[in-house]
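MOLECULE: protein
FOLLOWS: sequence and fold
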Amino acid sequence: MPCFLRQLHKELIILLYNLETNQCVTKVGNSMGDFSCVNLHSSPPNMLVAGNKDRRVRVFDLRCAEAVCCVQGHQLGVCSVQMDEWKVVSGGEEGLLCVWDQRMATKLWEMHARHPVRRVWFDSHLLITANIPEEKNPRGSSITEDDPSLHRKYRGVIYCYDFSVDQLAVDSVLPICRSSYDEVSGYSYNIGLAVPYDSI
């Protein structure tokens, strides 16, 4: 069913409309703060996830128009959300990225970045975030136009986290550390190793 969302600022609820009939299908919400982000597209059928300026993430069941899960862990408002059948990913204005288990309403994992997490996307093994700063231009007359070190904190960052289960643990180890005693020579990579070589 094609639909769109609308937030009523005075009542602090989310209205879900059917685009074919132009009728309101359901109302969800009634929170203390404004809803800052909503994701219906990536959610399972009849589910909606919403982030709020009151620092909470809510999962709504559209069949009964009630919150089935509410988690809190951000220090500032929530600005991006996505969910699947059992987990919710939320990004906050303070740069905190959280992965939640909605069945138990507990935090599974978190990561902090400098800029607000404006966009999250995940699938079975990848998590991609876009961290975009509030201020895009440096302040102050002493900052020069061509100094990249002063402007670095005003750049956004895209992070990609790979949670593949089939990724081998040895892939993250330097080749010199995977060497066996059978090899007679190697390059030390400026690392003082005791095993497998005493001197390289």
